[in-house]
Write a structure and sequence with these properties.
This protein is 19% helix and 45% strand. It has helices at residues 49-55, 96-109, 113-131, 186-191; strands at 2-16, 22-37, 40-47, 75-81, 85-88, 144-150, 154-162, 166-176, 206-216, 221-231, 235-245.
């Protein structure tokens, strides 16, 4: 049986240097996951459904054009299919409230209803897979720090820490952005690798992807973090996603 609540926070900042084009999105939402039957999960939005839609690639700010009554849509049934994994229940697309939302989004975007449904499904299942710890293959690694991959332009490192009540698994993949005449701060980023994801400094002509899982003594997710940063002379990207179980 599962009955836990989570707060999910997304920050998405992107700037094209020179022409001033930018994106600056911050949103959060609160979901509850219930499972009284093996292989079935009810995902209930307690608040912030608009924020969830804002976080869906391909929908984004279109969600701001929807009326507030869309908050009435709050529940999704997810089924664990033996061959497909997690999928939304087949009748979800024909839920009256969801269909109204999809039709409105289709009118604004020009995309088919089915395409928009797939975008929502993909984002919802991504978060659920993370919460159920289905997305990481490093959770059983022993305590230590491991060099996973190394080349002149890229390095991947795994770090595992554990105490009496929790286990923390961190992975970071950093790379030198090539194809530019400017110097890269790749070597400095390698030195600062575990400080960089949470820091304010940006490392010129580099990119990083960082993930962190905090697991409790019952092997359940307490906190998840993802950070993507990419900095070049043309653009600056900074995307973060945090999932935290509420006490």
């Amino acid at each position: 049986m599962v009955n836990d609540s989570y707060r999910i926070e997304i920050k998405d900042k992107f700037m094209v240097l020179g022409d001033g084009a930018k994106r600056d999105v911050e949103c959060d939402f609160h979901i509850e996951i219930r499972s009284d039957e093996l292989g079935k999960y009810l995902v209930v939005f307690k608040s912030g459904f608009h924020g969830f839609l804002n976080s869906c690639p391909g929908i984004g700010e279109l969600a701001n054009m929807l009326p507030n009554c869309t908050n009435q849509l709050s529940e999704f049934l997810v089924i664990d299919e033996p061959e497909e994994g997690l999928v939304l229940a087949k009748n979800t697309l024909y839920n009256d409230a969801l269909l109204l939302i999809l039709e409105e989004l289709a009118r604004y975007s020009g995309e088919p209803v089915e395409t928009l449904f797939e975008l929502i499904q993909s984002q919802l299942l991504r978060d659920l897979n993370i919460i159920l710890l289905r997305d990481s293959h490093e959770l059983d690694q022993p305590v230590g720090e491991y060099l996973v991959f190394e080349s002149i332009n890229r390095e991947s490192v795994l770090r595992v820490k554990q105490d009496e009540s929790s286990k923390t698994i961190e992975t970071i993949d950093i790379k030198r952005l090539i194809g530019t005449d400017e110097n890269s701060e790749f070597e400095l980023l390698k030195h600062d690798r575990w400080l960089a994801p949470a820091g304010e400094r940006r490392y010129k002509n580099t990119g990083l992807n960082y993930t962190k899982y905090c697991i409790d003594e019952n092997e359940s997710l307490e906190r998840y973090e993802f950070v993507h940063q990419s900095v070049s002379s043309q653009q600056n990207k900074n995307l973060s996603r945090c999932i935290e179980r509420l006490k």
